[in-house]
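Hey forum,

I'm writing up a methods section and want to include a predicted complex as supplementary material. The small molecule is zinc ion. I've pasted the protein sequence and the SMILES. Can someone with a working setup run it? I'll credit the forum in the acknowledgements.
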Amino acid sequence: MRALTWHGKHDVRVDTVDDPEILNPRDAIIKITSTAICGSDLHLYDGFIPTMKAGDILGHEFMGEVVETGPGSTLVKGQRVVVPFTIACGSCYHCGKHQYSACDNGNPADNQDIGMELYGQPMSGLFGYSHLTGGYAGGQAEYVRVPFSDVGPIVVPEGLDDDDVLFLSDILPTGWQAAENADIEPGDTVAVWGCGPVGLFAVQSAFLMGAARVIAIDHFPRRLELARKFGAQTINFEESKTYEALMEMTGGIGPDAVIDAVGLEAHGFFVDNVIDQVKASLFLGTDRIHSIRQAIVACRKGGRVSMPAVYGGIVDKFPLGAFMEKGLTLKTGQTSVQHYMPALLNAIVEGKIDTTFLISHRMSLEDAPKGYKMFHDNQNEVTKVVLKPGFTETAVAAE
Amino acid sequence: MARRNDDAPPTTSKSQETRDSAVQALPETRGDTLFGRTVTINRSRAELYEYWRDFARLPTFMENVVRVDVPSRELSHWVVKAPGGKTVEWDARITEEKDGELIAWASSGDADVPNGGRIEFQDAGTRGTIVTATIVYDPPAGVLGKLIAKMFQREPAIQARRDLRRFKQLMETGEVATSSRTRAQLEEEKA
Ligand SMILES: NC(=O)c1ccc[n+]([C@@H]2O[C@H](COP(=O)([O-])OP(=O)(O)OC[C@H]3O[C@@H](n4cnc5c(N)ncnc54)[C@H](O)[C@@H]3O)[C@@H](O)[C@H]2O)c1
Ligand SMILES: [Zn+2]
Ligand SMILES: [Zn+2]
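Reply by user p_vandermeer:
Happy to help. Structure tokens for the complex are below, copy them as they are.
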């Protein structure tokens, strides 16, 4: 089959590799019909995530048709399914508590050592996201092997297009969990850093959870425009001072809840960010944490901090004092996708959440390297790239 | 042994003296290198004990064990992978057994890597069962030692931790997780 493989920083290629096979009873093989490039994939593309190996197949946002099942799978050939990016067994203690992204068993035993060393406990398994999280082949390919297929994939009801439901695999539940982790109370003002897919779904979710006002922060006009479309007020951090603006816009109180949907590659010419970037380039530190610093400082006393953004390592100048003195609460984590999928599928069917607005580009799998470059270089125009194996035209932009 | 204010298991002690006395506490001592590994499994004590007690099934999750023959209820014969596609073998004997709670074993006197230990099963309420392996072995010295260390592929403590994780996966999910994509990759991984 054809698959998008990682070979190093800014080097991804479409290669021919062996097709996946059923290896465990609960496996299924899915023929991919749509798969997206994620902001998290850019962290791999930029070489920020350790334990990648040349030839690794990327992609953790995907859906398709069931073509083969193991004896323990509950799926049926021909079904259309969306697959969660978190690989969870459904039967461990954490899965029992619906903490699917903390599943004990998705990550193969030998791979768990790295997580033990780095984080104290092993990570769960994820598709296409380094060997720290299992080394599973991802879904930016023609076919993928899906373990625990009786627990993860959700069957798509008739009448829904791929584009309607694809984002159930990651970014929609991630935006939703981000808002849920902000413990929003009716009447709250919520500030969201980053108007990428995660931030934009967090904006929609925050309103559905009763926020009176959402203030979204970014520097890309087109992305800010999308946030406004959903009713958010916006701050362009290149034109205004974020902290000052937030204080003035909230009557001097600060937002009740803040959401960091930027992550370890924060942009911007801020002093702390420049120091982080220099350190990262010298391998003295790994993460650029400007947005979470700013979110903590801006948050009101006794407020809530939600951090869907991905960080990987040890950081400097974390405003621990502000965090303590203001009595803040922080919630974070990889998304427990399986937990949110059924309700969010319903919300899509009922038209409560708009998903397709995000897609700026659809292209064939063969064009994936171009898709990565575009998404990386032109974040203003390129909000989401969806790859379709078998798509014949090249790089068709949405109207 | 001043341990009045410390409930940590002796296997985690910084003091050689404490570790030595833990070795002595095992039913039959085979070596002086001690380690312990604990995992919590979301299954009943009885179920886990029963699976483990049938030693012939241990290779389903112990990666470097090729085969365990069980000539009698107390005796077992182990065939373990060695470098160059070879295997080494030894006999072991059960030295203590409490149904649903504990199994202790010791290798016979002439084993290449003398070893012994016990595996314990404790109730953990809604979390299932805490499984603790405490193992003592005699790390081989010299050139032969290096060869044998290689035979164990990794440090036994790491190997044991991985084996326990695989046991947990098998008991909780009915399969051992793999990220291989093809059968050929899976074979290679297991080799
Ligand atoms: N927790 C999870 O399970 C999960 C799942 C998916 C993605 N993520 C993470 O969420 C984050 C966002 O993902 P995405 O797909 O939306 O990424 P993205 O790269 O498309 O969007 C990030 C946005 O942040 C903006 N930004 C950069 N610096 C900023 C700053 N200083 N202040 C305000 N905005 C700034 C960028 O302009 C961009 O629009 C990433 O870190 C991603 O890895 C987490
Ligand atoms: Zn993603
Ligand atoms: Zn689980």
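Some notes you might quote in the supplement: The mean pLDDT of chain A is 93. The CA atoms of residues 81 and 155 of chain A lie 4 Å apart.
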